[in-house]
Design brief:
Blueprint: H1 18-31, E1 34-39, H2 44-49, E2 52-54, H3 56-63, E3 70-74, H4 77-86, E4 91-93, H5 102-105, H6 109-121, E5 126-131, H7 136-139, E6 144-146, H8 151-155, E7 163-167, H9 170-180, E8 184-186, H10 199-208, E9 213-216, H11 222-225, E10 230-231, H12 234-243, E11 249-253, H13 259-265, E12 270-273, H14 298-307, H15 318-330
Parallel strand pairs: 1-2, 1-3, 3-4, 5-6, 5-7, 7-8, 9-10, 9-11, 11-12
The chain binds iron/sulfur cluster.
Iron/sulfur cluster binds next to helix 5.
Amino acid sequence: MSASLPLISDTPEKYEDPLDLMDEIDQLRKEKDATILAHFYVDGDIQDIADFTGDSLKLARDATQVTTSTIVFAGVHFMGESAKIMNPQKKVLVPDLHAGCSLAESCPPDQLAAFQEQLRSAGRQFQTVAYINTSAAVKSLCDWIVTSGNAREIIDRVPADKEILFVPDQHLGRYLSEVTGRKMILWPGSCMVHEVFSIQDLIRAKRQNPSAVIIAHPECPQNILEITDMIGGTEKMRQYVMSVEKPTTFLVATESAMIHPLQKAAPQHTFVPVPGIMASSGETCACNRCPHMALNTLQKVRDCLRDGRPEIEWKDYFAKAREVLDRSLLRG
Ligand code: SF4
């Protein structure tokens, strides 16, 4: 997987009936002794046929509970790596090896190692905290891994006399620095999807729906978070909307596929993806769809089950990454 690889496959998929594909996948899942894990940002059809759905933290934990010999991970590359790291003996398949992550790619391991060395040479005492959206090679260079769901708790575990180098998401780092009161050295990375929300459009949407509640992912820039009513990762968003009984309109500033699990969890509400409401035609703007997650399709899930590839291969540095993931996500 590389940032330079094309996002769109050269050969467009031939149309196949989704219901037939779902039946085929179901059959293959049994034949191949496989479990399907799907992130909340992949298409709703894939979430519907998955054995487990969730955010990165939940899926990393779910991956450790799988009893089948094969895991299919519908998400992006670093998530497939995490599933393999936690299950070295299992075959881990991904529907599309090109499904990367702009945020993970904004922190190449060689550049991180060089920067850490620079800080050490300058006598700085620090621990490196990485958001889970990083490659396994980067994870192996870190002390802690966090998700938006457990970041505060993990940051509290970093000794008070150490500085924190937070990678790769500068917006999440800034937000966490504010809520925990810890000073952080921020790596200048960001997610292409969460950066695109326009503050003007969001304000306009709120004016059009004065009673609407804004919910946003902490990967969004500060100006969006400042006018947000509830900031939280995907699982926290789901729990939050389920806790609100009165039918409410939510303006949702995160990847637009997230609307699917929110609608399923709390059908009494109306969910409007930001900035979709702004189009005068009423159409949804597609710029908050993650192009990497969108590479996962039902056909590719079927094909990888049928063909037994593409597969995430074990690498030497996975062992070090496993130690970090294990103490960060699974213990405590
Ligand atoms: S939404 Fe952003 S952080 Fe998530 S996989 Fe896509 S590019 Fe990466």
